[in-house]
Structures are given as C-alpha cells and as structure tokens.
Write the structure tokens for this entry.
Amino acid sequence: MKIAANRLNTTLTKSPAPIYLVAGNEDLLVAEASQTIRDFALKNNFTERQVLHVTPKFEWQTLLANANSFSLFGDKTLLELRIPNDKINEAGKKTLLEYAENPPKNKLLLIITKKLSGPTQNTKWYKTIEKSGIVVQAWPINYQQLPEWITQRLHQQGITAEPSAIRFLAENTEGNLLAVKQAIEKIVLLYDKKQLSLQEVVAAISDNSRYDIFSLVDAALGGDTKRTTRILNGLKEEGVEPILILWGLAREIRNLSIMTFQLHLGESLREVLYKNHVWEKRQPLVRLGLKRHNQKSLLKMLQLAAKIDRLIKGAAPGNVWDGLLSLSIKLSK
C-alpha cells in the first residue's frame, strides 16, 4: 500500500506490516515518519534494532543474514536499512525482492531512502514491497501549502496565531521545514499563551538575542559592511546555527533577483515592491539593494550560497563561517 506521510498515523492502528519503505527528499518529513514507525514497532514488542547503511561496498547478503538470525532472548527485531538513493545494484534488487517475497515473522524491515524515480517504482522488488508492506511518500510542502502546514503544527501545540504571523513564519523560513520546526519549538518555550500576534512571533524568531539574522540581512542590504561583519561575528559567538543565517541571506538574495528581473521587464519599482510584499519600513533598504546589484552579481551570490549549503552538509571542504562572511559582504557591497 502507498500512502502520504501525513496519513501514516491513521495507518498505524493495526498490527505492523512486515516492511515499511519511507521515501522522499524532504528530510524532516522522512525523519519524522521513520521515527513514528520506530515508536510503533517498539509498542509492538520489536525491542531490538539493527541499522544497516548501504554503501558502495555494502554486502547485500548481510540483510538476509540478519533477517534469518534469531535473538538470544527471543526478542523481535526492527531492521533499519538506509539507502542514500535509488541507484540499487542487481544484488540489491535481488535481495530486496527475496526478502519482500518471504519476510520473516519476527522481523520488521524499515527502508529509508530518497525519492524514488519512476523506473525504480516499476521494478519487481518495489512492487512486491508496495503489495506486501507500506510505502510512505514524504512529499515536499510547497509555498502555497506551507501556511496551512504551519497552522497545523501550531495547533498540535495548542497554539493559534494571526494570519500575518503565519505568513511571516512561512516567508522567513523560505519553505525549509526544519527551520519552521525550530521556530515553533522556540515559540512554545517562550510563550504559554494560546493566541499569538505577529509581534510575538517576530520576537520569538529573533530570540531576544543581541544579534539576530534579520538585523544582519538589513545591515547588508543597507550597504553597511562594518556592521554586517560585526553582527555576523555576534551571531557566531551566540551559537546561531549557520543554516539559519544562510536561509536569511539566500532568501533576500533570491527576492532581489526576482525583483531585478521584474524591473528588467519594465515594471515600475513601486509595483515590484508591492507585488513582492515588501513591508513599507523595509522598502528603503530593498531599494538600496536593488540599486547596487544586478542579475549577474545576484546569480554569483546564489551560487556561493549553494556552495555554503554544501559546506554545512559536509559535502564540500571549506570553512562555513568564512563562506557566510564572504556572502554577507558581497550583499553589502
């Protein structure tokens, strides 16, 4: 059976399926779905857990060996198979098919992977898993769906917020669900009230720190390189996560790029600012940014932002904070 991630809880009311496959490129949704399945398995007495990572040199027979092994204490086991992508070799396809055709009764297999391509979903091993188990698809939340997703998340904590506050959260996290989750966690810690205003949400995101990401972006937009550098160093000293800083900078650069393109098409500056929901008090700063930068310089900054993202994820060598400093200074000049 194939289901969306948001339907998983309603599915886990019966006895466990022998196989769960969680697939998607939205890391937070994949992680939460996987944890929900782990918790469900534990409630059903799958007290042991074995984690297997599929690497280029992974021996697929290891999965079958673990599946056919018996616990010394007779405990049921959760087998967790983590596959980095759907580039599965022939040995892997054969092993997954063999397992899916005859899953052991004392084992529960949880497969975690990225979004599966169309050809992969047409393979025999996948179709067998879909038939005998449950495939959980973690679809990305697009920008139009994000406000509703944020509202639901707040409701889970017993909190409601003004529509403007919801929009603020959506805009300032730029669709990154992990950033939304962290923001909501801060809100829950800071407020015990059930209804929040825009001002309270803004204050929660800023975290009442001496330095905040919004001040960094505004300083860079305004062309104040010294203040930009000082604020970034302050954020580093206060332990602010680099990924949050990158989101703030990249979001502003993308917005400038969109507005620059619209201006190039002949739209008036006033119309462009209105269309892109630029608050009146921020319009002078955005005007300065648009005056200093063009499509070419903004594209170079977006390329640098992509590189910093790889640094943060450990996918490229280099110093993250040096990259953030370079990006901030480029935006300010």
User: Anything to note?
Assistant: The first strand starts at residue 2 and ends at 4.
